[in-house]
Amino acid sequence: METKLARISQLSKENPDMVFTSLGHLINKEMLENCHVQMDGTKAVGIDGVTKEEYGRNLEENLEALIESLKKKSYKPKPARLVEIPKDNGKMRPLSIYCYEDKLVQEALRRILEAVFEPMFYDEMMGFRPNRGCHKAIRKLNIMLERKPTNYVLDADIKGFFQHLDHEWIVRFIESRIKDPNIIRLVRRMLKAGIMNNYEFEATEEGSGQGSVCSPIISCIYMHYVLIWWFREVVTPMLKGYAGLVVYADDCAPRRRKLVT
Fold first, then answer.
1. Quick check: is 261 in a domain?
2. Is the CB of residue 257 less than 8 Å from the CB of residue 151?
3. Is residue 252 part of a domain?
4. pLDDT in tens, 182-222
5. 160: closest CA among 61, 245, 250, 59?
6. Closest Cα to residue 158, out of 253, 229, 256?
């Protein structure tokens, strides 16, 4: 399975305009079993209360039933359990806790999305990517400040980024590279699964829950199109001198160019 994903990643890198039309079959028993093995079993449980250990006791039967529902297009993820955790600034961050089986499907979907989109991301994207992180983002920013002719830095944060991602734009961005209806159906159902807040169901008409295995890659795809691609392909060619950008999730730091006279 890893070989197949690596091949998809290679094709995506070598053919930037390539559109993948048949990827849903990759979410099979082998992939889901591998997702189960690698899943962290210490995480909080969803509304069904099922842990990794409990799910694994009848793993063969559970996976076969899951695969059958995926094939019949009857799979429907359960609502996430909403909790709030404190942030460093004293405010609260909403966190969505998903049921274990839904996490397996999310992880399989994440692997496919990452294989297709990771090769096309620009270097400015530092968050939620393999072999990158906040330390490399800071290092990149320091290099720009110390070695480039910078006039000023703008530190920006998108308020409520994960909670307000537009579902239709998420789908449109994904469809720019993936036209498999099975993948798109899973993405839509995952986004529309809803949440349980104080024992009451709330529909999710926007956003991708923080706590979803897929949210990090979805946020990268979104930021790639709405900010980084625009900055690299539209803004930068019109400027004189230097301009740089570092993006980590919903935080970004553009550096003002040195004017050329």
1. no
2. yes
3. no
4. 999 999 999 999 999 988 999 999 999 888 999 999 999 99
5. 250
6. 253
Give the chain's end-to-end CA distance (angstroms, integer).
55
DSSP summary character for residue 25: G
Q: Are 116 and 178 in contact (CB under 8 A)?
A: yes
What would the two tokens of residue 247 be? 């993006």
User: What element of type H or E holds 80?
Assistant: strand 80-86
Specify whether the CB–CB gap between 138 and 146 falls below 8 A.
no
Is 254 part of any domain?
no
Domain with 20 in it: 2-236
Section 28-35 average pLDDT: 96
C-alpha gyration radius of the chain: 20
- DSSP class per residue in 103-146: HHHHHHHHHHHHHHHGGG--TTB-SSSTT--HHHHHHHHHHHHH
**The residue count for the chain:** 261
Amino acid at 8: I
pTM passes above 0.70: yes
Measured in whole angstroms, the distance separating CA 143 from the mean position of its chain's CA atoms is 27
